[in-house]
Backbone:
C-alpha cells in the first residue's frame, strides 16, 4: 500500500510575498493494491505538488510517504511509473524507439524492451505510428506514447498527472482499459483529472483537494452517502396545488410536475403524489461527483 501522511510544502516567496505560497497543508491518503484513486481539485490545489513529492522530484517540508509499510526509497521509485503533467518526450525520436529507450533505462534487455514496446503500441492503438517521429504525432497520440513510457517496465505503482487531458473518446477508452488491466493485476493507480465524470466511472476511491488540504476522500458511494439525500418525485397530469405544504420545490413543464426535497415523510409524499395523478418516478436522486466536488470546495 502507498501511504501519504501529513504532507506540508511551502514555496519560497518574493519581495511581494515574503511568506511564500503554502502549497500543501497536511495532505493524507492511502492507495491499496489494485485500487484506482482519483485525485481531483482546481488548478493550483496541490495535486501536482503531491505527486512530485511522491516521485522525489520535490522534497516535502514535513510529512512522509510510505510504500509497503516503510519509508519510500529511491530504489522503490525506480519501480514506479510516472507520467508528469509536462510531457517529457524526445520530439525527434520515433515513437517505438522512444518507448524501447525508456524500457532500457529501467533495466530491460533490448529484446524485452522491444517486446514491451510492441505490446503497448498495439494496446494503445499506435502500431501504425511506430516509426513516426513524436513531433509528427497529434497531441493525443503523443499522450499515448507518454503513457506507454510510464508503463513499459511493468511498474509496481502508477502515478499519472492529467493522463486523459486532450484525448478523444476512443483514446480515453483505450487508455482506461490499459489502466484497469494494471489495477486488476494488483497495481495501485493514482491519477489526477478535471474530467469528473471519468473519475466517477473509473475510480474505486476519490480524494478532493482544495488549497492544499484534503477536503473529502473515500469511495464515490461513501461520498454520496455523506451528502444530503434528495427525493425526486415526478407526477404526470397532477391536480393543481397537490404539493402545497410539502417540503421542497416543485417545477412544472407541461403536464409534468417534479418535486425535489431533502426532508419530509416519504410515505406521506408518496400518498399525496398517487392521489394527485400518475406517478412516473419516485426515488432518491444520487448526487454526481461534480456536485459533491462543488459542495466540498465551496
Residues:
Amino acid at each position: 500500500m502507498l501511504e501519504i501522511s501529513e504532507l506540508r510544502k511551502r514555496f519560497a516567496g518574493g519581495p511581494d510575498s515574503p511568506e511564500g505560497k503554502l502549497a500543501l497543508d497536511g495532505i493524507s491518503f492511502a492507495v491499496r493494491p489494485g485500487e484506482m484513486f482519483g485525485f481531483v481539485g482546481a488548478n493550483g490545489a496541490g495535486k501536482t505538488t503531491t505527486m512530485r513529492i511522491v516521485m522525489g522530484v520535490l522534497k516535502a517540508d514535513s510529512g512522509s510517504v510510505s510504500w509497503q509499510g516503510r519509508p519510500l526509497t529511491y530504489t522503490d521509485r525506480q519501480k514506479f511509473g510516472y507520467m508528469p503533467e509536462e510531457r517529457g518526450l524526445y520530439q525527434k525520436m520515433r515513437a517505438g524507439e522512444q518507448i524501447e529507450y525508456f524500457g532500457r533505462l529501467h533495466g530491460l534487455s533490448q529484446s524485452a524492451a522491444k517486446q514491451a514496446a510492441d505490446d503497448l503500441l498495439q494496446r494503445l492503438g499506435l502500431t501504425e505510428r511506430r516509426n513516426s517521429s513524436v513531433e509528427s504525432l497529434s497531441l493525443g497520440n503523443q499522450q499515448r506514447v507518454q503513457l506507454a513510457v510510464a508503463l513499459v517496465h511493468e511498474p509496481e505503482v502508477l502515478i499519472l498527472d492529467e493522463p486523459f487531458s486532450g484525448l478523444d473518446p476512443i483514446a480515453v477508452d483505450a487508455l482506461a482499459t490499459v489502466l484497469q488491466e494494471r489495477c486488476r493485476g494488483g497495481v495501485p493507480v493514482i491519477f489526477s483529472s478535471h474530467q469528473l465524470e471519468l473519475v466517477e466511472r473509473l475510480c474505486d476511491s476519490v480524494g478532493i483537494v482544495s488549497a492544499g488540504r484534503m477536503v473529502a476522500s473515500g469511495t464515490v458511494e461513501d461520498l454520496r452517502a455523506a451528502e444530503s439525500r434528495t427525493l425526486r418525485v415526478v407526477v404526470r397530469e397532477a391536480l393543481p396545488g397537490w404539493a402545497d405544504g410539502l417540503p421542497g420545490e416543485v417545477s412544472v413543464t407541461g403536464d409534468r410536475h417534479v418535486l425535489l426535497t431533502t426532508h419530509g415523510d416519504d410515505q406521506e409524499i408518496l400518498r399525496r403524489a398517487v392521489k394527485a395523478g400518475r406517478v412516473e418516478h419516485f426515488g432518491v436522486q444520487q448526487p454526481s461527483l461534480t456536485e459533491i466536488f462543488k459542495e466540498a470546495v465551496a
In short: The chain has a mean pLDDT of 90.
